[in-house]
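Researcher: Sequence of Outer membrane lipoprotein carrier protein LolA follows. Predict its structure.
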Amino acid sequence: MTRISPLQASFSAIAALGLAVVAGPLAAQPLSLQPAAPATATARPAAPRALPLPPPRPVGLGTPRAVAGAATPAPAATATPVFTAANEPPRPPAATPAKAKASAPQTREEAIDRINTYFNSFSSLQGDFIQFASDGRRFEGKLYIQRPGKMRFEYRPPVTMEVVADGTSVAIRDKKLATQDLYSIGQTPLKFLVKERMDINRDSTVTGVSTDGDVLSVKIEDRSTLGGTSKITLKYDFVANELRQWIVVDPQGYETSVSVYNLDTQRRPDPKNFVINYERVL
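Model: Prediction complete. Tokens:
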């Protein structure tokens, strides 16, 4: 297993938020940074493994065995049953027509409206994520969101980092080193995840809209993030009506992609997931 240094883990957690690593009292300070590797295409997470089908039913299973030398009795004649109102069995429900497949948006305005409508359709969300850093390293974990303003990225070992937003601030914690860096939630480009109401045109600059199969991609720029302008690509499956991925290029040019799956918008996350202990930084 590849060892993840605390410095790498810290930078990965910051990259998940799309925060540029800059000098300042609130910024994490890496000792050295390698040039960003060329962006590589990221595949969707592997589909869940299909359950094996049961073996075929053996021929003659459940019928009496024939006795050697015995004549096989002829099948008895059966009368056609007559049903009355009193003994008529329930009829099977009528087949439900198959739901029509959602069509691709035809205009830029329709595409943006689809994205806005999706994000405004839920107040809570949780699921799994896979994060790819610009150098190809991969990290996994759980994501929890409670709108407005609350969010948690919980990384799986060996990463010891976690990212928590409580509605006002974003804390990047290192559980192993017992450190915590604080940012204003308005400095992160992931505001689209936690805003109470989403309006891409109002909150950012839309620079491109495209479709690839069932996936709608919307490219936006956010000039209010820490360190400068962040470029964000949202990938939304308009057939499944689910967010699939976001890609953030921070002001320094580092690209981070986060794919999400197993999303649940019905269960409300535990409020304890979004608590920041401010005494740790006093």
